Amino acid sequence: MENRNTMHPDLLDYIQRYVDLSEEEIALFVSYLKPRNLKKKEFLLEAGQVCRSRYFIIKGVVRQFYIDKKGNEQIIHFGVDNWWITDYESVINKTVSNCYIEALEDTQILELSEEDLNRLCVELPKADQLFRKIMEKTYIAIQARLEFMMSLSGEELFQTFISHNPDFVQRVPQYMIASYLGMSPEFVSKIRSRKK
Amino acid sequence: MENRNTMHPDLLDYIQRYVDLSEEEIALFVSYLKPRNLKKKEFLLEAGQVCRSRYFIIKGVVRQFYIDKKGNEQIIHFGVDNWWITDYESVINKTVSNCYIEALEDTQILELSEEDLNRLCVELPKADQLFRKIMEKTYIAIQARLEFMMSLSGEELFQTFISHNPDFVQRVPQYMIASYLGMSPEFVSKIRSRKK
DNA sequence: CACATTTCTTAATCTAGATTAAGAATCCCC
DNA sequence: GGGGATTCTTAATCTAGATTAAGAAATGTG
After folding, report:
1. I need a surface site. Which of A6, A143, A161, B45 has the fewest CB within 10 A?
2. A162: buried, middle or exposed (CB in 10 Å: 19+, 13-18, 0-12)?
3. At B85, which helix (H) or strand (E)?
4. Is B131 exposed, middle or buried (0-12, 13-18, 19+ CB in 10 A)?
């Protein structure tokens, strides 16, 4: 049987950055996680469902999007290696989600159901601390994103995004980056032709 | 001596919505909170400082803003009754803040220093759970705000804001609402004249 | 109460970025 | 490796909302 310490090395590194867990605690934590492999274009969540889990992305890319009034797909998040993705609104409030989470590449994830998360936190109060700290970092990230969105021009936004995520341009279609940044694909095309 | 159960009734209600605490646990929690009264225009935080605390607003209004490249004050949050306010980036990462938190009215707050928060969480692991859940709700709120910002027109944004916060229009100057919503005060004025 | 400061309004002009439309590359799958 | 689907580009036109400027209300303060 696989040694639990080599099972999800990235996740273990990730956890240790936030809290200090013993061997047994890590084993307990990992025992609640369900590995899954997604094919490209496979969905983790679809609009109309209640989201029941949080997903840790080991390797791959997913996008979270909703369909706006005009019928366009609006991307609200990308999920990449070593990041959690879920619809927090739906998973916390147990409301019907209005969004989709879809793999953009073949993607390996670990699923933690909200039920299991709560059981885990009873058994291991440090899990509450871990998820508190993850939430704080996640909040800081979205706050920074909101500030960028509000203060930068379209061109600055795009340049900042690709300089922070250089590999992204290769991995996901440009029109999806445009959607994530709240601009039209034609405008991104214009920006890119300017910069060359 | 004042009975601790009547000391901060709003805070107690607020806590009970998230976790179930015994009398003693509540007393412990409250013992870490420092009440403070702010005069209108008094600052809780100024750019250049490291933010060391989180603040629970009992009664009043504060704004959190930064000075942008052009020298304008950009409002990033309002803090109102029964809401926490802090610069999470600064308080968590212990970095120098670039923003100000200022009372817009005489305001009563409870201060919880980050040091004390950590001590509290050691003594009372349920505090981790409480702050995890608060962070989740806070995240859901900012996520919704980002989605509004990205999908609504200026006019829809303003109407949505005032319908969700009807008392606000009386309590804070209109140009601050404009700043919070990322639009010019002239444009808000135009919108309001259209709607009458 | 008067005067200074703060806040709000109106209107003209200007601009970043959307929209529309069409064609050109690319990418995949049979 | 050929043909349909997907993605990207270019260019013309259009529009929401910024900017500028000036005056009018409202508010606060000695």
Report:
1. A6
2. middle
3. strand B83-85
4. buried
CB contact under 8 A, B136 and A92: yes
- Check if B41 contacts A (Cβ < 8 Å): no
Cα separation, A95 vs A125, whole angstroms = 26
- Angle in degrees, 0-180, between the axes of helices A185-194 and A154-164, rounded to the nearest 10: 80
pLDDT tens digits, A26-47 = 999 999 999 999 999 999 999 9
Which residues, at least 6 apart from A65, have a Cβ–Cβ distance to it below 8 Å?
Answer: A73, A74, A75, A76, A99, A100, A102, A179
In the block, residue with structure tokens 């992305």: A57
- Measured CA to CA, the distance from residue A147 to residue B74 in angstroms comes to 10
Strand D neighbours among A 139-178, CB < 7 A: 173-175
> Checking DSSP bridges between strand B73-80 and strand A53-59, what pairing results, if any?
unpaired
* C-alpha span between A188 and A183 (Å, rounded): 7
Distance between start and end Cα atoms, chain A: 53
Instruction: Determine the Cα–Cα distance for residues B74 and A157; give it in Å rounded to an integer.
Output: 18
> Which ranges of chain A does DSSP label H, i.e. alpha helix?
4-7, 9-16, 23-31, 88-93, 114-123, 125-151, 154-164, 168-171, 174-181, 185-194
DSSP assigned state of B18:
T
Please give the Cα distance from B11 to B27 (Å, whole number): 12
The CATH superfamily label for domain A4-123 reads: Jelly Rolls (2.60.120.10)
Determine contact, residues A21/A126, Cβ cutoff 8 Å. yes
The CATH number of the domain covering residues in B4-124: 2.60.120.10
- pLDDT tens digits for range A125-184: 999 999 999 999 999 999 999 999 999 999 999 999 999 999 888 899 999 999 999 999
Residue A196: band (very low, low, confident or very high) from pLDDT cuts 50, 70, 90 = low
Q: What pTM, to 2 d.p., does this model score?
A: 0.94
Q: Residue B103 has which token pair? A: 């009372």
Using a CB–CB cutoff of 8 Å, tell me whether B128 touches chain A. Answer: yes
Instruction: Determine the number of helices (DSSP H) and then strands (DSSP E) in chain A.
Output: 10, 8
Q: In chain C, which nucleotides are within 7 Å of a protein Cβ?
A: 6-12, 16-21
Give the pLDDT confidence of A70-88 residue by residue, as tens digits: 889 999 999 999 999 999 9
